[in-house]
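Our preliminary data section would be incomplete without showing what the modeling component actually yields. Below, a chain of 145 amino acids is followed by its predicted structure, encoded as tokens that our downstream tools consume directly.
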Amino acid sequence: MGKNVRDVIERVKSKLTDLKSSLPPGVQVVTTYDRSDLIDRSIDTLRHTLIEELIIVSVVILIFLWHVPSAIIPIVTIPIAVILAFIPMHEVGLTANIMSLGGIAIAIGAMVDAAIVVVEQTHKKLEHWEADGRPGPAAAVVIGR
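Predicted structure:
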């Protein structure tokens, strides 16, 4: 309880391999349920989802705004946000499990939606700022002052 499941599974597999030589002839240990494949597939799914969402966000922003720097913002911030989600987990000794990986995958979708909305809204604010003759600094417009 409270241990890294992948490490425990590997230790059990190792121990079972060691036990095979001491078993009587004709007796074998058969694994009926191994979660290691499920864990590995979940991690691969999260990785795939992150890459897929970054590509989709970049394409959507580039198509609708034709602005490369705006596409770079979510490309950089989304992976950083995912990494930052793991820091508190590591600090309190929690390992990533199926539920946390699933939650992070769902959160990536919400972050993607938010990134597109924020970038589009910022562009609209800057369009109005330019139409008004650029009163004040652009940073104040982007921040919302």
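Residues 98-131 form the longest helix (34 residues). The helical segments are 5-20, 36-65, 68-91, 98-131, 138-143. Preliminary results of this kind motivate Aim 1 of the renewal.
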